[in-house]
Structure formats: structure tokens, C-alpha cells
Amino acid sequence: MTMGDKDILLDLLLVETEKLKMKKTDIFNVERLLFGDYMAGIDGENRPYIQIEDLTLLHTKINEYLDDFNSSTKHPMKLVLFLDACDHVNRICRVLKQPQGNALLLGVGGSGRQSLSKLATFMSNYKLYNIEVVKGYNMTNWRDNLKFCLMQAGVSG
Prior knowledge:
Blueprint: H1 3-19, H2 24-27, E1 34-36, E2 50-52, H3 55-71, H4 83-97, H5 113-123, H6 139-154
Antiparallel strand pairs: 1-2
Helix pairs in contact: 4-5
């Protein structure tokens, strides 16, 4: 979305807010409108899905999750999480929480698609299954990997 597109959308939203007799500040009360269920740090199913108003707290919380992830894995990720990266992690978390949620992440190599997805999966308390294609990988290996993944998702919950 270009800046021109954002300006057009903002103008349309402001026209609609005037119809509701509301001010811009009543609706757009923060720099970025973000929601998430990971800010309380509670594990389990009943995490509150709340608006994230403090971007500094968001950045700190996601870095804490990254530290927790790195301490619990054999392959730690050395990431520098700037605000836009935190925004992307937030989006991936939201998509993963949707029923049958999935996303196609596009970008150049090394842009962080896989790393941010791993972090978002960890933050959402999900298991990650990653197929690694190595030399000698064939259709039999593919079927075995797919069978294992589907059994984990369907049978083991």
C-alpha cells in the first residue's frame, strides 16, 4: 500500500467518522492500531486479546519472547527486532490464531520471513514442523514427512 493509498483510505474513514459524530482522535488514538493476545504472557487458551497501545512495551515483550525462544532451542535466532519487524510478528500471530489461518509471506532472501514466523509460532504456543530438504531427499521422504505432519495436526491435536 503506497502513501497515496493510505491517504485516500484515511480520508474515507474520516468522512465516515463525521457521519457518526465522532472526532478523529476518538478512533485513531495511537500511532499504530495493534491488537494481540500475547502481552499478558499467560500460557493457555484464555489469553485476553487486547489493544496494544504502548509500542515500547510491545518491543520489550517480543524481545522477551525471542530470549525465551533462544533459551529453549538448539538453533537460537540472532534477530534485531525493530518496530516494523514487531508489527510483522504481530500480524503473523493474528493470522495463526484464525481458524485454518495461513499466510503467504513474500520477500527477498534474508528478509526474516522464516525467523519471524518461528517467533510468532512460539509466541502463539504452537508447535512448528519444518521439512528440511537435503541431498538424496525423494518422494518417499516427502510422503513420510507429510504423513508425520498430518498425524501430528489431526490425531495428536
